[in-house]
Amino acid sequence: MQDGATPIRLLIVDDERGFTEVLSKRMTRRGLRVDTAASGAEAVRMLRTQDYDATIIDLKLEGMDGVEILKVFKLLDPGLPILMLTGHGSETAVKASMRLGAADYLSKPVDFEALVAKVLNVARQGGDKA
Amino acid sequence: MLHDELAEAPLDLLLVDDEAGFRDSVAQRLQLRGFAPRTAGSGEECLEVMTSQPATVVVLDVRLPGMDGLETLRRLKGAHPDVEVVLITGHATTADGVQGMKDGAFDYLIKPVEIDQLAQKIRQAHDTVVRREERRREAVFRSQMAQRMAETERLASLGTLAAGVAHEINNPVAIMIQEAEWLMDLLQDSVEGRIDPQELSRSLELIRTQGQRCREITHNLLHFARKAETRQQPLSLNGMVLEIREIMERQAVKHHVVIDTRLAPDLPEIVASPSEIQQVLLNLINNAISAMEDKGGRIRITTAVEDHAEIGKALLLQVADTGPGIGEADISRIFDPFFTTKPVGKGTGLGLSICYGIVTRMGGDIAVESTPGQGAVFSIRLPAPTPGAQPQARPDPS
Lengths: 130, 398
Description:
Oligomer: heterodimer
Low-confidence stretches of chain A: none
Largest interface: A-B, 17 and 21 residues
Largest sheet of chain A: 5 strands, parallel
CATH architecture of chain A: 3-Layer(aba) Sandwich
Number of domains of chain A: 1
Number of strands of chain B: 12
CATH topology of chain A: Rossmann fold
Order of helices and strands of chain A: EHEHEHEHEH
CATH superfamily of chain A: Response regulator
Radius of gyration of chain A: 13 Å
Shape of chain A: globular
CATH class of the largest domain in chain B: Alpha Beta
Radius of gyration of chain B: 34 Å
Number of domains of chain B: 3
Number of helices of chain B: 11
CATH architecture of the largest domain in chain B: 2-Layer Sandwich
Strand order of the largest sheet of chain A: 2-1-3-4-5
Strand order of the largest sheet of chain B: 2-1-3-4-5
Helix content of chain A: 40-55%
Distance between the termini of chain A: 23 Å
Low-confidence stretches of chain B: 1-6
CATH class of chain A: Alpha Beta
Strand content of chain A: 15-25%
Strand content of chain B: 15-25%
């Protein structure tokens, strides 16, 4: 559970609905407020109407891929901490993401506790910066 | 050891003449020039000596009592195809020399023999033996190399496939783990281990669905692996195309590539090794996907029956992409072993050379056309089975 009065608002961008749904319900139980988006377009729409403390973006998405979404997010909200989810063999894309300003990354399959820890961590850092 | 194996065979010389005086004097004079000839007095003795300890070069008089020189020559070449024979003929029998050349003699000299000329002929004959042995070793080495290359490439293309499958399986596995942990979360927070039955059955249902998804992926892969037979058998080219498309579909979609097929409905079956056809298709599709992975595109696989004036009916298998195409400098080297335009570590540079090998061994032909900026078209033509004849499974030639 969160210590602060206002819960952390998290956006998860991944086209694997089953995955975003289960992450969402588990994160919610940990006291986070979670939205999900299945595509770059949907994610951008949500970011325009909502403020988030952190976001998780899957690197491999159909249509606009994770790195492109990262670039757009950095333009729309430069202070928003972004966590990239990567698969194996995406070293180049990971390096590109970090160069483009991603806060951190995690390899799939992710360990839920590690993911929660990273989200809390980057959200706090983002909050400090703001 | 390597040096020993590659060292050339020593010059082992056998001198065959029935006139002991002539034979010994030639032997002596050859010894002075560094040779160590053994001798035989008749064709029969020559064959006998060769059986117990074969020489590399035989100097053979055509005129012999009993089995004559030409008959000895034929039997010698029959039993020891590698031996080189220098014939000695009289003035009146040069026709024998010519006949001897037709029967495989290295050369013939006319009596009286000039000893230095004979010595030179013997050395030349021996060089021929050595060179032939070298060429044979080289051919064996090359074919072993080719086999190793084919195996390397097969493993590489299977590796690419396996990586794709692992990727596919990762997502459903992640969901199953998360759903199971979700239930554990609920259990931990519950009173006396009670979980809302609706929540429980929803999670279990999700776990089952994702498990089924994994099963489907492994099922496809196993089906593919079972088909990895090198034995020649009647098979449907269209069927193979559809199977590979199903396996490659997800990987293609990930790279924004659409695979579509235009398959001739009346395509006759061919006799081929399923694993080889798989390998050719996998290589061409993998190449097309990596050519287009930046911007996406379309792969069109076409099969057709063609009628050619020169070669008769042929089956056409075409893989066309809408990628950047192949530069003029690259297109002539594209089937060369180890030629690759992929970054270091990404490609073995063997895929297309292996495809080339497989297709030509089947009596077919592979060609590529490309206009830079407008994609590449790989066309494979295979000889059509003779009409009427049912394709039969052939035993493995190896």
